[in-house]
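Model: You mentioned two targets. I'll fold them one after the other.
Researcher: Yes, keep them separate.
Model: Target one:
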Amino acid sequence: MSFSDLGLLPELLRAVADKGYDTPTPIQSQAIPAVLAGRDVLAGAQTGTGKTAGFILPILQKLNGTQARSPRALVLTPTRELAAQVADSARQYGRHLKLRTQVVFGGVSINPQIDGLRAGCDLLVATPGRLLDLAEQRAVDLRQVQIFVLDEADRMLDMGFIRDIRRVMKLLPAARQNLMFSATYNEDIRGLAERTLHSPVSIEVAARNAAAERVEHQAYKVAHEDKRHLLVHLIKSGEWSQMLVFTRTKHGANRLTKQLQDAGIRADAIHGNKSQAARTRALAEFKQGRSTALVATEVAARGLDIKELPCVVNYELPNVPEDYVHRIGRTARAGAGGCAISLVSPDEGGLARGIERLLRHSIPVAELPKFERLPARAVVDARPASAAPTSHVHGPRMASRPRRFGSAPRDRQGAWRR
């Protein structure tokens, strides 16, 4: 199948070709015809499957031909980064159409956003909080919305946006087309879908809650205080070009970033306490290859679209097993491979077992290498003599004799003890 088989306008096909795409992904081949037909859609798709184009392309086609001052399509996203990414995709795919896309989110001045809305808007991409602020100021009128999209619906609920979602939906006309996209499913998501969608087309392009198939998983069991030393060793011995590193807290992200910098590794942090300008700069530096490690919290990393990212590191395991799926979805995108490395301390055993239950398979545990415990501000440029040969693309080799991810190992350096 090609994009031309999906019934898209020539202008949209031209924009798709401009981006170098010729064959739709499974989510695109199923979602685009359903949206064009006016059906509500409930789509389960992992990150990196092309879901944004799966709803943006048919929305642009349905909006084409007329303009209005108020938005006729609304895409609600959980984070600023995802909102910016969706809006950028809409502008690229709509470059040959006379449609206006506006994006609004918090962390930046509201006045330019008000001015943009007053100038007219066909497609609006927004985060819930800023959208409600604009609505309270009567700066946006949502009564003309014909198509409503909830992107990353599971993350919306995880972040406590259910009240805001309900408030937004009260501002929309009752007669509208609804699209819901979610990488994972639970009872809350299904309940929201039942209340929002009308006889939806159900699309699932991957096993429920499944991690990306092309990701190689690997874990190291290590004492928490040794994690930073091990990470520095792995980065330098493996000559990793780039990685996205996850921590649980903003403070932890800042602390690890400083420790990596002190060890001579180019690193930057991205989290909710950073200004939008700082977050945009950090992401741009990372995408341009000017930094090796981007240290992020769960919330900030949602919506990050980084091409050819070879490795994701779980410096700390997520509290919610489904978040592991979201994290590792940052790698192995658009047909590429990738690896997911987890540094697991003794107190994270329960979290590890929860992840394995979700994935329905064990994760290989690698033998802990010998590594140097660096002083707080030591800068070490040489490759450690004890480093084992590793891949230059996808990080360290996978363990040859896998053990259970959540089980207690034999007693050795930095390992758990029963």
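Model: Target two:
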Amino acid sequence: MNQNIPFFKYPDLFAPHSKELTEIFQTVSSRGAFIMQDDLSKFEKKLAKYTGVKYALGVANATDAMQLLLKAGGIGNGDEVIFCTHTMVATASAIKFTGAIPIPVEAGPDHLMDAISVEAAITAKTRAIMPTQLNGRVANMDAIIKIADKHNLQVYEDSAQALGAKYKGQSAGSFGMGGCISFYPAKVLGCFGDGGAVLTNDEEIYKTIKLMRDHGRGEDGNVSVWGYNSRLDNLQAAILNYFFDDYEGIVERRRVIANLYAEGLKDVKELTLPPAVDSDVNHFDIYQNYEVEAEKRDELKVYLADKGIGTLIQWGGQAVHEFRDLGFTQSLPYTENIMRVGLLLPINMSITNDEIDYVCQCVMDFYK
């Protein structure tokens, strides 16, 4: 008998916690605490402590966070910023809207930025490198920072999918000039709408973005820089505070699910699985997504849908440089192949062990 396993059960963000979340809504609302109140400052302090950075700032979304970081770091007209094309288009648009030029490069076997491709893309106009810490894993930051230092380049991180992921014990978002986090509902730590944060150890970047997210206004009301309206709503911060209290448990559960998938699918030769939990001492992965490379990917997706299983092809199966209407002309064959075979299996806090077994069995049945 077929089961019903959506890729992500959005109502389950609320239902198991309805009493506590309703109380949060009533408490925040009764205080009239909607914009930049104590709930936000408390969340920012918790976030900074958790990630080991000096400063965290809540903003409207992770795309804004990336753009604010780039502008605060001095990226602007005519500068080239190298990014991995295996990412959401928002990574490139954040670069574009600073006036800079997004330069796409290849992903490697781990689906993250390929350092060799980065060095080959550097020109006299290159100012920065922006790796995407994708699927809850951090790229080889030693190699990327070595290249940046060699060529006197800045490093920014699109760490939207990687809150809590680490490379050699250092948290995503804490390398280089700073990073961003997304709190989109389907993220490992999600709120009930859009939300994001900037992480940085740079005091000047912190001070600048603190002004820029609120129209350039300081606490005295003086407007000293051109700014945006990009504040994380206080109610969303209160919700994030609630979920953040059990964040280590949430991450551990996702790692358990990844282990179950790795064990259940290990003998399927038609699949290439993501790095297993603790398979590399340098990486601590949080498994925002479980992205496999699958032979006959499209047929498998249809088969699983017929069995009641929701899956997802990231970004519609196109890398950023394949959106030719945006002006990209590059050919990046390794990443293009990833986009033709990549498939996300369901991984979230709603799915049960029995449901994971069912997904694995259906995948095995398809290839048999």
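Researcher: Noted. Anything on target two?
Model: The CA atoms of residues 109 and 311 lie 21 Å apart.
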